[in-house]
Design a protein that fits this description.
- The complex is a heterodimer of chains A (537) and B (261).
- By secondary structure, chain A is mainly α.
- Helix content of chain A is 72%, strand content 2%.
- Chain A has a two-stranded antiparallel sheet.
- By secondary structure, chain B is of the alpha+beta class.
- Chain B folds into two domains: 103 residues, no CATH class; 111 residues, no CATH class.
- Chain B is built from six helices and nine strands; from the N terminus they run αβαβαββββαβαβαβ.
- In chain B, helix 4 runs parallel beside helix 6.
- The termini of chain B are far apart.
- Classes of the chains: A mainly alpha (537), B alpha+beta (261).
- At the A-B interface, helix 4, helix 6, helix 11, helix 14 and strand 1 of A face helix 1, strand 1 and helix 2 of B.
């Protein structure tokens, strides 16, 4: 039995690998410290990075520790359809090629700057608050992944899990707080290579154990090789989640840092687009690992299903890899977590300082003061995430939550960039319509019944298109598919209608904004000549 | 902007150099990644054999509860069967399973000891996974892949013979389970099938009252590898002999339609 040996311990080789890794990244943070002269260096790395660094920064920032764990879990439980937990970003990736220059041309420090310029101060501050909450959840997801892995490798609940989570948080705090985005981007290069290694590390051993692909298809059900599952990862779910991801990605605050750190817009689009393609390739490795785990643990090899699907990946590592490589796997997961944590930490502190603290709480302080405050806020966000991680158990629930929140601001971002008529009243109306619909149709809300004439046909239709799930006699709950469709539609339609009916910013302000994003990087002189303020180029 | 011409309210940022070609190149990468996934799926899918995955749950003489029941439910969810047959259990356990597993249609015996749960209408369950839970001294849980598009039966050409033919013709390999859905409104079960049951009665393996006119019949052959000890091998009937030669049966369960009313 896989989880019977609860006295399993990492041996000296595993610990050596983990400590070498953690010590190394802390050292990079300390070295980077001397290059941090001000906020521009801390938040945007001095806008000096070329495409390879931006690529690995985008890859690292976009690849969180929980990603391999949950995709492999989905693969274990639902087969290849589990890939949609991450592949929902695939069709969005070419869009990055189009929007990366827009972010870079904005020349802002944070996405909060965009909301102030395009909509107003209230939107700026609310986005800053959202950023802190969003990244606390996202960071908690990363730390929770580390915790799960340690539990799985240890063979059961162990105090070591929490200690390793705390140690990881301290290490990335050290290099993130000291080195800011410079340390984060340099580490992303190392961490990115480790994530690639992680993605394929266990596949050869797993295939060998079950007798290759021949053994795989004999041991798992044919349905595990379908691209969509009958449950959970349905085609409708994939479509609506992809849409939510496309709308929401622009409201991930670190995207401004990822593109803004690039030397120019060409480096930004290459880095963002192909850095994310690297992740998509790794996703295939993760889901294959999960399907192999299904053959190993749910199939006839052991005959013992895992108690939690998110244990599939670490259970395979524990059972198939030798000591040293187990430690390397843990270091890789910590690397994946830290790479996105550091980007999140820098972005969230940047948001709060630039879009709440400096303009509205303490104006005209020194650069050093804001730098110190930024580091303090980053630490608070990480501590908040640490608390959530230590008390949470389910990665998938936190993940789904983290996917649904960004469209609240994402709708306003998209309309703000491409539509002059989008205004602050439309933005707030859209935000509240989206939030209220989201709350009202949340899938774990109370079950409902339908009693009126013809209701059976209606619910049958809704059931067929995966909008409702029957849970008993004339008792239904809304499914995620309907839920996402409903709140996105509510947000988009409200933005359109209210913006058409109300007046927004002056023509001069709008002209200034659109001239800014229509002017390529390197032509800032033209902007100054036209009297258009450039926040930071 | 041309003076006097009304400007559109839509503001698409102008493409810089390489925007369009790069955008299409990115889609090539999307296609490559989807292709890679599909290739792995096709390699993995291969010529899928019907098979059985078996688990043992429960403590001897007792139905599973607490962590054991959680383990069973986890295993069922993992298997994701479209049909779940429960046999020899209690009303409470059947109800507990019904609540914890997504159920679209259900047929539960009045005493709760047997049940068939389905996630979809049977006729739409193409390529369905099928799970059976049998509680004797120890709970047994098996998952079998049954291609329900090959359903035999109906009033016009009922019987096991057709199932045997299909088993030969369609399955190619020895199937691990044959699910016979001998439903319908008439009180006449397939004659060959009744023959088989009579043989079993003569052998004292089955009570006469268990012979129902219209039932769900589930044969679990030796793919369960000894998990299910109750063994009926109805070799006296020619058709069933042929069937059992082809599909060595180690267990046989009868779910009476009358029980589900």
């Amino acid at each position: 039995m896989i989880f019977s040996a609860i006295d399993y311990r990492l041996n000296w080789a595993d610990w050596l690998v983990i400590f070498v890794y953690l010590g190394g990244i802390a050292l990079i943070g300390v070295i980077s410290f001397k290059y941090i002269k001000g906020l521009r260096d801390f938040f945007l790395g001095g806008r000096r990075f070329k495409k390879i660094f931006v690529m690995f920064h985008a890859f690292g920032a976009g690849t969180a520790g929980q990603d391999p764990i949950q995709v492999a879990g989905g693969g274990y439980n639902r087969g290849f359809a589990g890939i949609w937990l991450q592949l929902l970003w695939l069709v969005n990736t070419p869009v990055y090629w189009l929007v990366a220059p827009v972010w870079r041309r904005m020349r802002y420090i944070t996405t909060g700057d965009f909301f102030r310029q395009r909509y107003g101060k209230s939107q700026e501050v609310s986005f800053a608050v959202y950023g802190l909450v969003f990244y606390s959840v996202l960071n908690a997801l990363n730390l929770l992944a580390i915790k799960k892995i340690v539990i799985a490798v240890a063979g059961g609940p162990t105090p070591w899990a929490n200690w390793i989570v705390v140690a990881s948080a301290i290490m990335f705090l050290v290099y993130g707080l000291l080195g800011g985005l410079i340390a984060a981007v340099i580490n992303d290069l190392i961490q990115g290579l480790m994530i690639i290694l992680l993605s394929f590390i266990v596949i050869p051993a797993g295939l060998s154990k079950i007798g290759g692909f021949t053994g795989l298809h004999e041991k798992v059900g044919v349905e595990l090789f379908d691209l969509f599952a009958a449950e959970e990862f349905t085609i409708a779910w994939a479509i609506f989640m992809t849409l939510a991801a496309l709308i929401g990605i622009v409201a991930h605050p670190h995207m401004m840092g990822t593109c803004g750190s690039a030397k120019n817009e060409r480096e930004a689009r290459w880095g963002l687009c192909y850095g994310n393609f690297l992740k998509r390739i790794c996703t295939v490795g993760w889901v294959l690992t999960g399907v192999i785990a299904a053959a190993l643990y749910a199939g006839s090899v052991t005959g013992s299903p895992l108690p939690d699907r998110e244990l599939a990946f670490p259970a395979m590592v524990r059972d198939l890899l030798p000591h040293g490589l187990v430690g390397l796997f843990i270091a890789c997961i910590i690397a994946a977590a830290q790479s996105s944590l550091s980007a999140a930490m820098v972005a969230s502190s940047g948001l709060f300082i630039n879009n709440a603290y400096r303009p509205y709480i303490k104006k005209d302080a020194s650069e050093k003061h804001y730098l110190t405050a930024s580091r303090l806020v980053a630490a608070i966000v990480v501590v908040g995430a640490l608390v959530i991680a230590l008390v949470s158990t389910s990665i998938i629930r936190l993940f789904i939550f983290s996917m649904k929140i960004p469209p609240l601001f994402g709708i306003a971002w998209w309309f703000g960039v491409i539509w002059r008529k989008a205004n602050n009243k439309g933005m707030w109306a859209s935000f509240f319509a989206c939030a209220i619909t989201m709350f009202a149709t949340w899938p774990w809300a109370e079950p409902f019944t339908m009693h009126w004439k013809g209701s059976w046909g209606l619910t049958q239709f809704f059931s067929r298109i995966n909008f409702v799930k029957p849970i008993g006699d004339n008792l239904y709950v809304w499914r995620d598919e309907w839920h996402i469709c409903a709140f996105l539609a509510a947000g988009v339609l409200t933005m359109l209608i209210v913006s058409l009916l109300t007046k927004g910013k002056s023509k001069k302000e709008l002209d200034d904004f659109y001239t800014l994003i229509h002017t390529p990087v390197g032509q800032e002189d033209k902007l100054r000549e036209a009297g258009i303020p450039v926040v930071m180029h | 902007m041309v003076e006097g011409k009304k400007k559109s309210s839509w503001e698409i940022p102008p493409p810089g150099p390489g925007t369009i070609s790069g955008f299409f190149a990115a889609w090539v990468f999307v296609g490559a990644i989807i292709g890679l996934t599909l290739i792995l799926m096709i390699i993995g899918k291969g010529p899928m054999a019907l098979r059985v995955v078996g688990y043992e749950v429960g403590i001897e003489g007792k139905a599973p509860a607490g962590p054991e029941l959680d383990k069973l439910v986890t295993a069922i969810k993992q298997a994701n069967p479209m049909l779940l047959a429960v046999h020899g259990t209690s009303k409470e356990l059947t109800e507990e399973l019904r609540q914890r597993i997504e159920v679209k249609e259900q047929n539960v015996a009045s005493d709760g000891s047997s049940a068939i749960f389905s996630k979809y209408p049977v006729e739409k369950s193409e390529g369905a996974g099928f799970a059976l839970i049998h509680f004797g001294k120890t709970g047994k849980f098996g998952v079998v892949n049954v291609d329900l598009t090959k359903i035999s039966g109906g009033n016009e050409k009922p019987g096991l013979e057709k199932a045997v033919g299909l088993a030969k013709e369609e399955f190619g390999k020895t199937p691990h389970a044959i699910l016979v859905l001998a439903g319908g409104d008439t009180p006449h079960a397939p004659s060959d099938y009744l023959d088989a049951l009579e043989v079993m009665v003569e052998r004292g393996k089955l009570k006469a009252e268990d012979i129902a006119a219209s039932d769900w019949r589930i044969f679990i052959p030796e793919g369960m590898e000894g998990n299910l000890k109750e063994c009926y091998v109805p070799t006296d009937n020619k058709a069933i002999k042929e069937f059992s030669d082809r599909v060595p049966i180690v267990a046989h369960f009868v779910f009476h339609k009358g029980d589900f009313e």
